[in-house]
Amino acid sequence: MSEFEKQKFTVIRQLRNLCAHCAHDVSHSCRLKTIISELDNLSGVPLIVNDRFTGLLMNK
């Protein structure tokens, strides 16, 4: 798993913990659920400089 994927899943897990419904996988609609979905769909080429993840080239 790339450094980008690790960071992405960490952020998604933290966002899920902000909403009690999302944390318990309850079917509902909230802004956090939308943001989590958008984050989950992010893809691109990781930019790595001197063995450190510095960003992401986004695909359109």
What features would you describe in this structure?
It is a single chain. This protein has 60 residues and is of the alpha+beta class. Helices cover 47% and strands 22% of the residues. It has 3 helices and 2 strands. Strands 1-2 form a two-stranded antiparallel ribbon. A hairpin with a 2-residue loop joins strand 1 and strand 2. Helix 1 runs antiparallel to helix 3. The chain is elongated and about 40 Å long. The model has no long low-confidence stretch (mean pLDDT 86).
Helix content: 40-55%
**Structural class estimated from helices and strands:** alpha+beta
**Count of individual beta strands:** 2
Overall average pLDDT? 86
Separate helix tally: 3
Biggest β-sheet: strands ordered side by side in the sheet: 1-2
Shape: elongated
Question: Separation of termini?
Answer: 22 Å
Encode the helix/strand succession as letters: HHHEE
Percent of residues in β-strands: 15-25%
Weakly predicted, low-confidence segments = none
State Rg: 14 Å
Largest sheet: 2 strands, antiparallel
Layout of secondary structure:
Blueprint: H1 3-16, H2 20-23, H3 31-40, E1 44-49, E2 52-58
Antiparallel strand pairs: 1-2
Key traits:
single chain, 60 residues, alpha+beta, two-stranded antiparallel sheet, 2 strands, 22% strand, elongated
Quick synopsis:
This protein is an alpha+beta fold and 60 residues long. Helices cover 47% and strands 22% of the residues.
